[in-house]
Prior knowledge:
By secondary structure, the chain is an alpha/beta fold. It contains twelve helices and 14 strands.
Amino acid sequence: MDRFLLMHSFARAVETGSFSAVARELGTGQPNVSRHIAALEEHLGTRLLHRSTRKLTLTPEGERYYTEARRVLDAVTEAESNARGEDQLAGLLRIACPTVLGRTHLLPLMRTVLQRYPQLELDVQISDRFIDLVEEGVDLAIRIGTLRDSALKARRIGTAERVCVATPGYLAGHPTPRVPEDLARHDCIAYTLASAGNRWMFRDGEVTVGGRVRVNTPDGIYRAALDGLGIAYTPVWLFEEPLLDGRVQPLLLEHMGPPVPIHIVYPAKRLLPRRASVYMDFIAEVFGGDPGLNEGALAALLKRRAATAHKLSRRRRA
């Protein structure tokens, strides 16, 4: 029994969701792949997959085995590449990232990465839910905020400055807040997945806020704020364009809270594949060169806004 073949067949079945797809990869028939999986389950003495006519579903045992099997398969691929003297990264890299940061900053980099490393595969999970890297077999995750998980190693790759914003339309019907305590008299848009709940942190401490709108995604906060439904407290990069073009106004600038770190994290007890460390270096370099993801982001943005307004004013006078 070729255990490596059985393990490979199982892992690819999980990743493709299809015995037929694995059969095409291996140049064999679908019944042979089914027999491979059955033989592996018999050898292990446990069921790894639930089969149905529509999809394959991992059992809890299958989830644990897949994580370890993928680690072994990736290590073999990397060892073979090193033995051949190849400098190309190969194998599957799993990355998790919050939704808006993924959409605006991570996904646009995929083309560059895949062109640079033709043998690399990317599985990017864009979600605001908490992902257990070990349980779900994720190699790297980008996280915003203070880290509390001692089972992870972290590398700081950026900073998220936070600012209160509101549309001119909203402010036309409400008094502009001068101090954080004034927010108690405003509709504040709450992010329900925030660990601090409805408490917003400013330079001199926390303020409890309330309002009629609560959403569970940063995209929802973005839309609600632009629709004039209230005041949002948000990373600067989320509202970069609306801040530049004046669709929203920054508020309480003298009371801004401390910036929030952005880290890329990985399991402390797992050997980090070379493809993961190279990818981490790439992301750290790109994020480090992005003014919106580093301290001074708001000041730089407002400077650009003032310069643009000055140019427009000169054109009108001319």
